[in-house]
Amino acid sequence: MGKKRLMVPAEELDLSAVKYEQEKVKAPHLTGFGLKLFVRMIETPMIGSLIMSFLKKQNRVVELLQNTAIPEDPMFKPEFPPQEPEPAVVTLDEDGKPEDRVSLALECLPHYNPANCWSGDTNHPFRYWKIRDYAHAYRSGIATPSVVVEHVISVLEEFSSKKPPTPLLISFDAEEVRKQAAASTKRFEEGNPLSILDGIFMAIKDDIDCYPHPSNGGTTWMHEVRSVSEDAVCVSKLRRCGVIFVGKANMHEMGMGTTGSNPNYGTTRNPHALERYTGGSSSGPAAIVASGICSAALGTDGGGSIRIPSSLCGVVGLKTTYARVDMEGSLCGGGTVEIIGPIASTVEDVILVYSAMLGSSLVDRLSLKPPPPCVPNLLAYESSDIMGSFRLGKYTEWFNDVYSTNISEKCDEVLNLLSKSYNCEVVEIVVPELHEMRNAHLVSIGSECLRSLNPDCEDGKLERLTYDTRISMALFRSFTAADYVAAQCLRRRMMYHLLEIFKKVDFIVTPTTGMTAPVIPPSAVEDGESDMQVTGYLMRFVVVANLLGLPAITVPVGYDKQGLPIGLQLIGRPWAEASLLRLASAVEELCPLKKKPVSFYDVLRS
């Protein structure tokens, strides 16, 4: 038996004695025959439980959960104390019309003249078209949604015919998209667009309902047990604003992976390097935005699943505060770590989409009492003064725990730029008990996945899941009720630590991922792979925001020596999306140079 560990109460922990421990995940890297054999072994009674028990002990899961006395009471979902109001923001009515919220958000954006981008000068550096560019093109008659939709359809059909398949979408109906575009075009002809988002093309991750498409969660069978009769709540709000939905985007099966690998339909490729992963699980949403085909997409994020692929593909991804966006109509609506959030090529486009889709459910409003949602007024005269008051928390040893120093050095450069340009103060912090936090997150998300999928697995669907998903399911089945309660005790403990940190700083700043886009092994194309070392690097900085429900955003800040995108992650106080978006906008302005992806399509100008 392992020796019992005693934790002192969180408020008595001596932070000066905390030693950072580098994370080293101990598990085999498996593809091909080895992967299949391993799955067969762990699904065999007795042998499987012995293997899982060994792996968990190797990775200190048993020590950190079962052999530890945790003095805190459990916290079964994020709970936040009342927060101070944010400065220089515009409050949005979550019960009002989404198109009115978008209008208010639009008025908060800096002045921008889209006509300058149509001057015919082709020598300007690469940039993505913004939502405001599309709106200008439609309103001035340069283009119509019906013209652009033909370019979009042509590109998507090209992707669907590739061998081996590398689809961006896994449910797509060209005629249905044409109908949406025709209706939008008619509104522009009549001079009555619904909002700035009218005629904007978006993709929806395959675990969020978007009628009439099925929601398969990247599986081949979910539509057999769950039908879709209407849009998810957040999708319906975007539809009211005139958004055109191109279909359901590819994803890592059931969100249970960080690379975006999906042997069921084919693995989406990174637009910056086609031999590399996009990151996951929101692989299709990030890639379709990075490729220029859609202005924005919706993803879900339970363990970095918006931020990881956004970072690896060089776009912006927002994880909102837990319960800021209604989860009804998604496959992960009953969890405590998951959110639905926007992915776009610019911070301002994230602001516009977020403004349309936000709004807590009635249940969450009653239990969590969220303050009204806000967006930053980026036109405010005091904007630079506000930026100068921001304190940025950096835990240097954690910050530097990356696969390549290219990542930490590039992110450090941005912190220096923020200090020089805005007088932001960088404050050294300590985030204690990161190993405990990762285990608490793993047990929480794993138990919630198991609760959701177990009835179907018992009904014979387990063998129709991909091999790496089956490894995850075997691990999740090994968790006990005592593990789950211990994880929730750790959640309360970690919440205390983070709220104490936020008394000293306004944001915690890290690289988004510990490595840039990993190569797809040829042996993983057909059956997938299990590589926990890669997962460890990709998830290194993201899960604190999921376990504790905090808002976080990734912003592209540059490239490594191989030309692969690097993302900077900003983590904010509970409900402080507006301040987070203000800082993200400043970071974006300081890092203007963008590389044109290898796989890029100019669907507006084609």
Task: Give an overview of the whole structure.
This is Amidase. It comes from Trema orientale (Charcoal tree). It holds the Pfam family Amidase. GO terms for molecular function: N-(long-chain-acyl)ethanolamine deacylase activity. With about 600 residues, the protein is of the alpha/beta class. Helix content is about 40%, strand content about 15%. The strands form 5 sheets. The chain has an 11-stranded mixed β-sheet with strand order 5-7-6-10-12-11-18-19-16-14-15, with helices on both faces. Strands 1-3 form a two-stranded parallel sheet. α4 (about 100-105) packs antiparallel against α12. It is globular and about 75 Å long. The termini are far apart. The mean pLDDT is about 95.
Main-sheet strand order equals 5-7-6-10-12-11-18-19-16-14-15
What's the rounded overall pLDDT mean? 96
End-to-end Cα distance, whole Å, is 67 Å
Q: What structural class do helix, strand and pairing data support?
A: alpha/beta
Profile the largest sheet: 11 strands, mixed
Helix content: 25-40%
Q: Radius of gyration in whole Å, from Cα?
A: 23 Å
Organism: Trema orientale
GO biological process, one term: N-acylethanolamine metabolic process
Family: Belongs to the amidase family.
InterPro entries: Amidase, Amidase_CS, Amidase_dom, AS_sf
